[in-house]
Amino acid sequence: MKKILKTMSLGIMILSVSSMFLFAQGSSEAKKMTLKLGFSSPESNPWYICAEQMAEEVYEKTDGNITIELFPSEILGSDKQMAEMVKMNTLDMQIAPQGVVANYEPKLAALELPFLFDSNEAVAKLLDGPMGEELAKDLPAKGIRILAYWENGLRQTTNNVRAITTPSDFEGMKIRTPDNKMTISIFEALGANPAPLAYSELYMALSQGVFDGQENPVVNIHASKLNEVQKYLSFTNHKYEGKPFIISEETWKKLSPEYQTILSDAAKKYAVINRQMFADQDKELRADLEAKGMKLNSPDLTPFREATASVYDEWKATLGEDLINRVVNAAQGN
Question: Fewer Cβ atoms within 10 A, N terminus or C terminus of the chain?
């Protein structure tokens, strides 16, 4: 009898240990996730380079339990479509234009007011401080969470008509813009005829003469070889564009607190690296565009600021005078 009980006890112990092993194995497998990250830029852009490095770091720090798949060049759709996919939880993450995210949180449009920032240092101080947190805090309730503010840089203007030296040079010029209300407001104030078009269609539209010009940061102009279809590059610095690194709130909730921290910290770390890459590349890319035949000029921006002052008044109804004043003060380091 004792022998039987002993055998039964041993069997129960083996069964228990086996169950624990299988449960642990099942738990480990359950933790594995593949997160899809979409964005509009090609593989030569700093976003892709930083996103690739970030994916490797997250994979290592989660012991291979989180894999991030990259989908560049609007493979999954336009920026606007991808942001809606993130909101609906059919896409996990996006490096999104702040103007697109502003469709869900209008306060973010304050970052795009014309000639708001004088330096990259001022941008970083604002976005990584209390103001950046305030602008993002209500988004999770709308299905989107900002993990960090990546960068697209100051936007410049190219065209095939003339060098831009004064606001009057924009008169009647058809300018391609992203689907962004602030950008359209700025170019309307400058006297141009702005119209939105997906970035993936830009090169073809310019080559066919559908638009006279367009506006983008230097890194995008260079990466997309717009020098092949545009003659003049004018450094108008008319608008700063951040790239919020966003995640679906539903995806965020599926992550353990440990993995949330790993992902959030990595997004912030590579936001800093991303900004520095843009700054380091800018001078080199300008020189290369000039060597390839583009005519470059840096106009006096004072009359441009004066011409777009009405944009601040126009957006007071949407953003509120108090928010605009606080963002302006924060941008100036006050």
Answer: N
